[in-house]
């Protein structure tokens, strides 16, 4: 498919002043989901998200039309998100796709936690993440697209089943499953809209304005609000800044103060540990696609060796709880 | 022995990458070349420390389980004991073994990982 030509045809529907697009370029991204950056010839900066032709929808990932609906719902409650401009229809010739505004900023965690350019916004980021999560979790759940519902025990069971199926023998992960099972909080009284992947990499950070966009909504679901707060505290996204538990840039107190709700640090730490455990199982899953021959790239082989980073983090968490 | 992937699988993946022609200016190719360099460094560290770490882990497992046997068998037995609840995840002797195991693995896989320093500080 010629994405550039299809975008040219679509341009007038994206902005009344536009007749075509300028320099469409594919950004690096997943194998099944494409991200294209382009500008309209009236200067509007945009992003196209589309599913590559012929790729099946992954089990957990949302259809793009649902993703666009969630971004619009988060936008409606004032959460910082890229505004959805257009959800593609068959006539657009782009397949399953939508167009949104392109935000200015940085998503690379390594830069956000360390670069001088972000020194001014870093001190306020943790609190801001808490505030933004309050907004996302306040989205009315009636009228949202169909979403999976999960809680702590359900997530544990799901990932333990994957771990058993892989057949790895990792005593640290075994211990973590039993420890977390024994300490799992009850399901929340009212499940909320959970972003599901709220971490460095999916947060657009502007050097002056801070958090300007929450991206990548494909793992959104209904569940425990503490899940999002815990996920951003997983050490794997701190990029070496392990002393700052929130994304490598902030502290628990600021995150919880920004959230302003009734979530205890213990509950956040539980979900942080479950997050490390999930990431460990995901690393094994990605390795398995190498082992089975589905993807023989060295990248898939090597990511299996990141399981040990989650193990050392889990040991630290288990020790501090023992 | 470290698995998922094993050293042999990493050697195989490196060889496969080298045998596949690619455009060196392609960003994906640049990325994969960097991953391949990391894999080589991991293998070098494993060649240097792997055998010693396994000997130490085996000695710990024998003490922890009170049984003799080779590493893979005892490691599987520990996993089973954790799974069926015979050993509690809060058992101090277990945690000491898990800590040493994690420190050994990260020394091979990612010696610069922040979690190592964090564990030392905690």
Provide structural commentary.
The complex is a heterodimer of chains A (322) and B (122). By secondary structure, chain A is of the alpha+beta class. Chain A has two domains: 3-101, Phosphorylase Kinase, domain 1 (2-Layer Sandwich), CATH 3.30.200; 109-321, Alpha-Beta Complex (Aminoglycoside 3'-phosphotransferase, Chain: A, domain 2), CATH 3.90.1200.10. Chain A contains eleven helices and nine strands. Chain A has helices spanning 3-14, 64-76, 109-114, 122-137, 152-166, 171-183, 226-231, 252-259, 265-291, 298-303, 307-321; strands at residues 21-27, 33-40, 45-51, 84-87, 97-101, 192-194, 203-206, 210-214, 221-223. A five-stranded antiparallel sheet of chain A has the order 1-2-3-5-4. In chain A, strands 6-9 form a two-stranded antiparallel sheet. A two-stranded antiparallel ribbon of chain A has the order 7-8. In chain A, α6 (171-183) packs antiparallel against α9. Chain A is globular. The model of chain A has no long low-confidence stretch (mean pLDDT 94). With 122 residues, chain B is mainly alpha-helical. Chain B contains five helices and no strands. Chain B has one domain. In chain B, α2 packs across α3. Helices cover 75% and strands 0% of the residues of chain B. The longest helix of chain B is centred in the middle third of the chain and has 39 residues, at 27-65. The interface between A and B is large, with 46 and 53 residues.
């Amino acid at each position: 498919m010629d994405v550039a030509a299809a975008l040219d045809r679509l341009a007038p529907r994206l902005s009344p002043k536009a007749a075509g697009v300028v320099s469409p370029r594919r950004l690096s991204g997943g194998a099944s989901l494409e991200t294209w950056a382009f500008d309209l010839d009236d200067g509007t900066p945009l992003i196209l998200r589309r599913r590559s032709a012929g790729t099946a929808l992954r089990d957990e990932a949302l259809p793009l039309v649902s993703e666009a609906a969630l971004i619009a719902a988060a936008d409606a409650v004032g959460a910082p998100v890229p505004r959805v401009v257009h959800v593609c229809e068959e006539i657009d010739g782009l397949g399953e796709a939508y167009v949104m505004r392109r935000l200015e900023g940085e998503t690379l965690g390594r830069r956000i936690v360390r670069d001088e350019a972000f020194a001014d916004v870093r001190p306020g980021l943790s609190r801001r993440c808490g505030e933004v999560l309050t907004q996302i979790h306040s989205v009315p759940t009636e009228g949202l697209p169909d979403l999976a519902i999960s809680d702590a025990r359900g997530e544990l069971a799901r990932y333990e089943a994957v771990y058993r199926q892989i057949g790895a023998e990792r005593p640290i992960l075994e211990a973590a499953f039993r420890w977390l099972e024994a300490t799992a909080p009850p399901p929340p009284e009212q499940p909320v809209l959970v972003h599901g992947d709220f971490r460095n990499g999916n947060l657009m950070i502007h050097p002056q304005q801070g958090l300007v966009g929450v991206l990548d909504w494909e793992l959104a679901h209904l569940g425990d609000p503490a899940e999002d707060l815990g996920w951003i505290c997983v050490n794997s996204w701190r990029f070496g800044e392990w002393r700052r538990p929130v994304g490598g840039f902030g502290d628990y107190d600021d995150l919880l103060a920004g959230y302003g709700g009734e979530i205890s640090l213990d509950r956040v730490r539980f979900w942080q540990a479950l997050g490390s455990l999930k990431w460990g199982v995901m690393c094994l899953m990605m390795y398995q696609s190498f082992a089975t021959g589905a993807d023989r790239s060295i990248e898939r082989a090597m990511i299996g060796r990141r399981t040990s980073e989650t193990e050392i983090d889990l040991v630290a968490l288990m020790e501090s709880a023992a | 022995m470290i698995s998922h992937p094993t050293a042999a699988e990493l050697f195989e993946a490196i060889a496969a990458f080298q045998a596949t022609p690619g455009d060196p200016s392609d960003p994906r190719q640049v990325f994969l070349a960097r991953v391949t360099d990391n894999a080589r460094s991991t293998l070098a560290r494993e060649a240097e420390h792997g055998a010693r770490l396994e000997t130490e882990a085996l000695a710990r497992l024998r003490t922890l389980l009170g049984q003799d046997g080779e590493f893979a068998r005892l490691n599987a037995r520990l996993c089973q004991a954790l799974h069926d609840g015979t050993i509690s995840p809060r058992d101090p002797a277990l945690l000491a073994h898990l800590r040493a195991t994690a420190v050994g693995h990260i020394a091979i896989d990612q010696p610069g990982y922040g979690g190592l320093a964090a564990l030392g500080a905690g």
